[in-house]
UniProtKB/TrEMBL annotation:
InterPro entries noted in UniProt: YcaO-like_dom (IPR003776)
Origin superkingdom: Bacteria
Species this chain originates from: Streptomyces morookaense
Protein name as it appears in the record: YcaO-like family protein
All copies of domain YcaO, residue ranges: 75-448
Length: 448
């Protein structure tokens, strides 16, 4: 009998990425209508930079067309496929947050909080919806309104990940879905952002990514607006692979600086990378974030994001003539003006002063890497939310077209952690700041 052999075909990452791009891109009807490389300045680190424009989800929402780069879709890496696959994955994540609101997955119920509570529906306590101080609402141009239990809102009934199997709660749709447009009679309480959204070829990994981002932003804002300090990471044998990349890609430029930003009580590592320009160049400083269980990989993620923020800051600062970088007192109610503000030397001083408060420690002395399988790390994060009494809600945002691409998208939200906020509208009344030593107003945060 003739023996049989099994043939295994391995496709080069460039080929796999190109195949995915062909399915996603079309200037007329693609999920992406534009994708390509970005030019970097001569003084910028030597990384591949990619950017893309999302399809017209604004048409579904009945809104005007956004300005270029409004969705902040970018990818960066030391190999071409690495930057491109990050662009494609991030585009799927952004698309999911908007398109899921119109795919029939969610039923929005319009009612007042008082009506829901009177009907015995599962609702969060009123303090979960008021995260700003009274004085913030009085500032000129402040975009949000106080919570009023008698005014109607759009609500989503979402399952809990941290509670029992059947536990659910009604959550304001404007907190959860990027594509949700409040009705005219509906107050705008706070803005939904992509914090807590993950896309991956594996559903569990998409959920893990979403949870890690939730923990990451909570730690980053807890550090920026809290009173605790981070840990400046000193390179040693534990970071030798990353150090080799930096030596090659950042030669002749200020060395990137990494800071561990500890979470108050949730697992995982959060690292901020500070990328400085050569003296006199703009942007003066950019800050990127990374999260996960393995320190060197998290530092690399933070470095890539810092490279992206640096490119975005230069584009915003120069092409749009932004003035936020020169006006330290201007309130910023978008996620662009803060980046431009810290591009200028005057604004960069604020970032330098905050991170100068960090203590220093060798990488080898920091918490060990979590080498467990991804599913175990996922369970560990959910268990930590449960054990610390934090409410955690979840939804699958995977639309039909996302599934056909071989991806899944998941979204998580917690009223008990800090989400990315408009830089001029920090949630100063959020109870979570008590776990970070209290709230300290240091001005707009530097994260896009």
């Amino acid at each position: 009998m003739t023996p049989t052999t099994e043939t295994v075909v391995h496709r080069h990452p460039d080929e796999r990425t190109a195949a995915l791009q062909r399915r996603m891109y079309s200037p007329l009807c693609g999920l992406l209508t534009s994708v390509g490389g970005l030019l970097r300045t001569r003084r910028a680190p030597g990384f591949f930079l990619e950017g893309a424009e999302l399809t017209g989800v604004h048409v579904l929402e009945g809104l005007p067309a956004p300005k270029p780069n409004a969705y902040h879709i970018g990818g960066f890496g030391i190999q071409p496929f690495e930057s491109r696959i990050r662009v494609l994955g991030e585009a799927i994540e952004r698309y999911a947050g908007h398109a899921a609101a119109f795919g029939g997955t969610f039923t929005v119920r319009h009612a007042s909080y008082t009506e829901l509570a009177a009907a015995g529906e599962p609702v969060l306590p009123p303090e979960a919806f008021g995260v700003f101080l009274p004085g913030q609402y009085e500032r000129p141009g402040f975009p949000f309104e106080p919570f009023d239990p008698d005014r109607p809102l759009g609500w989503l009934l979402l399952p809990s990940l941290s509670g029992g199997d059947d536990e659910r709660a009604w959550i304001p749709a404007q907190f959860f879905l990027l594509g949700y447009v409040p009705r005219q009679d509906e107050p705008w309480l706070q803005s939904a952002v992509t914090t807590g959204t993950g896309a991956h070829t594996s559903g569990p990994n998409a959920l893990r990514s979403a949870l890690e981002e939730l923990v990451q932003v909570d730690a980053a804002l807890g550090h920026w607006y809290g009173t605790g300090t981070g840990v400046r990471i000193l390179p040693d044998a534990r970071t030798r692979q990353l150090d080799a990349i930096i030596a090659r890609r950042c030669a002749g430029r200020p060395r990137p600086e990494f800071h561990l930003l500890p979470s108050a009580d949730l697992p995982g590592l959060c690292v901020a990378c500070i990328l400085r320009a050569t003296p006199g160049a703009v942007p003066a400083v950019a800050v990127g974030l990374g999260s996960g269980g393995r320190l060197q990989r998290v530092m690399y993620q933070a470095l890539l994001e810092a490279v992206g923020v640096q490119s975005f800051a230069a584009w915003t600062y120069v092409s749009e003539g932004r003035e936020e970088g020169r006006d330290g007192d201007k309130d910023i109610y978008d996620l662009e003006g803060n980046v431009a503000r810290y591009a200028a030397p005057q604004g960069a001083d604020t970032v330098e002063k905050r991170f100068a408060q960090s203590t220093a420690a060798p990488a080898g002395s920091l918490p060990p890497d979590d080498e467990r399988p991804d599913r175990e790390r996922l369970k560990d994060i959910v268990t930590a939310f449960r054990n610390t009494g934090k409410r955690l809600y979840h939804a699958d945002l995977t639309t039909v077209d996302i599934r056909q691409l071989g991806f899944a998208a998941h979204r998580v939200w917690s009223p008990d952690t800090l989400s990315l906020c408009f830089p001029g509208a920090p949630p100063a009344a959020h109870r979570r700041f008590a776990d970070y030593g209290g709230f300290a107003d240091r001005g707009p945060h530097p994260y896009p």
